[in-house]
Amino acid sequence: MSFEKSKFHHPRLAVNDLGLTYRDYEGALSTLCAGCGHDSITSALVQACHELSIEPHKVAKMSGIGCSSKAPNYYLNKAHGFNSVHGRMPSVTTGANMANHELLYLAMSGDGDSASIGLGQFAHVVRRQLNMVYIVANNGVYGLTKGQLAATADKGVKNKAGDLSLFNDIDLCVMALQLGATFVARSFSGDKHQLVPLLKAAMNHQGFAFIDIISPCVTFNNHAGSTRSYDYVFEHMITEAIADYIPVKHEISSNCAAGDYEDVCLHNGSTMRIHKLQESYDCHNAMQAVVDIEQHKNRGEILTGLFYIDPHATHFHGINNTSEQPLNQLKQKDLCPGEHKLHSINDSFR
Amino acid sequence: MKTANLLSGESPMNASNSAIINAVNDFVVRFANTNGTGSASANNMFAKAILRMGIPVSAKNIFPSNIQGMPTWYEVRINENNFLARRGGQAELVVAMNAQSMTEDVASVHSGGFLLYDSSKPLAETMQRADIHYLGMPISTICLKEYNDPRHRQLFKNVIYVGALAALLAIDFKVLTSLVSEQFKGKEKLISPNIHALELGFQYANQYFNCPLSIRVEARELLNNRIMIDGNTASALGAIYGGATVVGWYPITPSTSVVEQFAHYCERLRINPATGKKNFAIVQAEDELAAIGMAIGAGWNGARAFTATSGPGVSLMSEFLGLAYFAEIPVVLIDVQRAGPSTGMPTRTQQADVLCCAYASHGDTKQVLLFPESPTECFEFSATAFDLADQLQTPVIIMSDLDLGMNDHLTAELHWDDERNYQLGKVLTAQQLDEITRYGRYLDVDDDGICYRTLPGTHPDKGAFFTRGTSRNRYAGYTEKSEDYVDNMQRLSKKFNTAKQLVPSAEIHQGEITAQIGLVYYGTSSHAINEALHQLKQQGLTADTLRIKAFPFGDEVPRFIDKHSQIFVIEQNRDGQMRTLLSNELTIDPARLQPILNFDGLPLTSLFIVDNVLNATAINTTKKIVKQQVS
Known about the structure:
The structure holds two protein chains of two kinds. Chain A is of the alpha/beta class. Chain A has one domain: Thiamin diphosphate (ThDP)-binding fold, Pyr/PP domains (Rossmann fold). Chain A has twelve helices and 13 strands. In chain A, the strands form three sheets. Chain A has an eight-stranded mixed sheet, with helices on both faces. A three-stranded antiparallel sheet of chain A has the order 10-12-11. In chain A, β5 and β6 form a beta hairpin. The N and C termini of chain A lie far apart (61 Å). The mean pLDDT of chain A is 93. By secondary structure, chain B is of the alpha/beta class. Chain B is globular, with a radius of gyration of 28 Å. Chain B folds into four domains: 194 residues, Pyruvate-ferredoxin oxidoreductase, PFOR, domain III (Pyruvate-ferredoxin Oxidoreductase, domain 3), CATH 3.40.920; 183 residues, 3-Layer(aba) Sandwich (Rossmann fold); 73 residues, no CATH class; 124 residues, Rossmann fold (3-Layer(aba) Sandwich). In chain B, a hairpin with a 5-residue loop joins β13 and β14. Chains A and B meet through β2, α3, α5, α11 and α12 of A and β9, α7, α9, α10 and β18 of B. β2 of chain A pairs parallel with β18 of chain B, so a sheet runs across the interface.
C-alpha cells in the first residue's frame, strides 16, 4: 500500500527560489523499516532538490526492483516515476533519456538490482555516458526477500542467518571508474553533510554521475560482524575529501575548516569546492581512485567521498549528435518524409 | 550442336536423348553456391534482370548460419501468372557451382532440364544422369587465365555464369550492363571489369551452347508498377514514416537488417537540415532485454520507439512485454520469425512465435499482433503499429518471418497518404490537466478500457504518477486489494476487446455461393494461396479464403469459420499455433479446424497445401460414404 502524507505544514517553512518548501519535494509515506538507510537517502534527496530549486516535474524518477527501488515513491511526488523490472532500470532510463534529454534522470537502484541481476545493464549504461544520476543504495543484503547476501557484501562476512559470504565482492565504484563514468562518489546514508553536496553536484553534472551510498539495512544487516552496519561504517569510514556544492550566484563560503582545497567548476557554472583531507587525493585521476579504494578496503576501511569528476565530459546525446529539440517533442512534419520521398525510394527497387 | 571445348577438352554440352522442357517465362533456376564467395549479389543481379524485362519473378535465398564455406542456394522463380511462392520440387535449370553439394544439385534438376556447371574438372561418373542436359563451362579455367588476383578469380566466377545465363535464357544483355552500372555507381572502376566478366560468360555460351535454350525469357510488361523489395527494408521505412525516433536493438538473424535499414534511411531522411543533427537515436544494446527496455523507456516518455528481433529475442523480451502490457506503455516490436525452438534453424523461415507472442510474459497477458503478408504490408503495418501502440497504450508485435523479411518480393509500390495524421492516443496536455479536478491514470473515463496518460514534465503540479509493474488502483497508487486488482485486470480485458475495432480486419475472398471449404491463413502463407486455389480448381474443388491480419480477431473471423463446413488452417509451424489461438480465443471446437502444417523451414508451396487438402477431402469423402453405408 502507499500512504499519502498530510499536506499540512508549518506556515513559515523556508521557501526556495521557486517558492516551494521542502514539503513540496516529498513523496508518499515510506513503508520501509524504521531506521532504514534508504529513508535517509530520501531525506537527503529532498533537501538537495529543494535547495537547488529543481522543478520537481522536470525530474524523472527511475528504479528497478527491491527495497531501494521502492524509495522513489517517497520523494518528489510531483515528478513522474518508473518502477520498472529487476535489474533493468538502466535500459529503461536510456530509452527515456533518448526520447527526452531535458529531464533530470534521478535513478535509484540497489545492490541486487545493479550488482547482480542488472550488472550487465549497469556496465553498459556507464559506457554509454548517459546523462543521469545513478544512485545505488548499497546495504550488502537482499531486504525484500529477507536477508540473503548480495554481491556487494564483503567476502567472509556473515548475514543475519549466519550464512558466510563465500565469494569476492563487486565494487560498483571501481567498475564505474574503469568503464569511464565521469562522476563517481561513495557516501554513507548516515552522513548527510557529505551526501547532500555530493547529490547536488551529481545533479548538476552533465554526464553519467554515479553515487554508491552505503545504506544499512536495520532489519537484516545491522548485526555485529556485518561490514554494512551503522556501527561498522561509522567506525571504518575514511573520507579523503569533503565537497561543498556552491550554486552559481552564491559567494563561496564553506562550512569546512580552511585548508587545501580545489574548486571544480561544473557545467552550469556552479562550483564544487573540494577540501582535501589526504595528501594523495586527486579527483581527476580515475586509476588513482581505484588504487585508493582497494588499499583502504584491504585495511578493512570504507573510503568515501568524491572519487572522480570530469566536468567537461560529453554524454550520450553529444556522442549521438541528437537534435536539440527532444525527440518526443518532434511533430509529424519533422518525422514523416511524405509521399514524394517515396517515389525515388520505390524507383530504387525496380 | 557446336563441339570441342578448347579450354577443358570436355564436351560442354552433353547431347542426351532425353526430352527437352519447353518453357517461356515459367520455370525455376536454382543456384548452388558456397557462401561468402559473393554469389548472392550476382544471383540477385540475375533476378533483377528478369524483373527489368517486365516478367514477374521471385527469389529465395536459402542460406546457412555461417559466414564462409557452407553450401547456399538461391532459387529464382519466373512466372507470368504471378505464382511467385516457392514452387518446390526440381528446377528446370540448376547452376551448380559448389562441389560439396553437387550430388544433391544434380538430383535437383527436373527431368529434361539443364545443369550448368564448372567443367574445369570432369564431372564424376556418379553425377551423370541420362535424363538431363549438361552445360559444362570451364569457369575456373577461364578465371585462372583471365585474372591474377585470387579474389577476382573467385568473385568473377559468379558474374561469368550470369553472363552465360543471359545467352542461354535470352536475357537482354543491355539490361545486365545497366544493372552493373547502377550497382557500382560511385565505384566506376569496377564497372568495366564486371561487364567484361559478363561478356566472357555470354560469349562462351553463345559459342559453345545452342542459345537460347528451350527454356527462356521473353520481355513482357506484367509488373504493374510493382517493386521488388525485402520485408525488413519495408518495415524500416514504415517505422520512419510512422514517426519512430528511438530504437534499442540487438543483432539477430533474420531481423538485423530492419534496424540497419532504419539507420540507413534515417541518415537520408531524418537529419535536421538546419543543424545537421539527428531526429532519431539508435542504440545497439547489450542484449535483447535492454533493447526492448530502451524502447519501453522511450514509449513511456512519449517518443515512438521500437525494437526488432527474432524468436530467441522474444523469449528474452517477454518479461518486459509483460511490464509494458501491465503498466500500459506503447512499444512496437518487429518479430522476424525463424525456425525454433531454441537456436533452431536460424536461417530458415517459420511462423512459430504466434503463441509465445500472443501471450508473451507470465501472468494473464494478451498482446496485439499484426501479420503482414508482403513488404507493402510490412511498410503499412509498421507505420500503423505506432498508431495502435499509442492508441491502445500497449505493445504491438509485427509478426514477420525470415522469408518475408530477408527475401526480395514483387510487391505493390509503397504509398503514403499525406493527409494521414498520426494517432497519438489519449495523452493529456498541461491545459487539459488544469481542467480536471482529480486525475487518475487508470480511470476508465471513456468506458473503452483505455485511460488517459500523461508524459513526464507536462505539468508542475498535476498528472504525475508512479508507473509500476505492481498492482495499482485507478489513481496509480500501489494496492494489494483484491477488488482493485480484479478491476484493473478486467479493464485490461476490456481494452483488448476495444483493440478488435482498431486492428486491420481479416481479408476474405469468397464466391457468390459459399464454398464448403474455407482456407484460413496468415502472413507469408498467402504467397502460395492463389496458386493452390488454381490447382484445386483443376481438381474440381473450390475454396473460400480468409487471411488473418491481426490478433485480437475481428468478428469476421468466427463468422467465416461458422459459414464453412470444412476449415483448413494453414500455417508454417509444427503445432498449429494459430489454430490453438483461434480455438482458444473464439471457443471453437478444435475438431472444426483442420491443420495444414509446413514446418521444414522452407517457404510454403502450393503443392503442399493442395496435397493436404486433397488428402483430407478424400478421407472425409470416404468417411462420409462409410457413415452412409452404416446408417
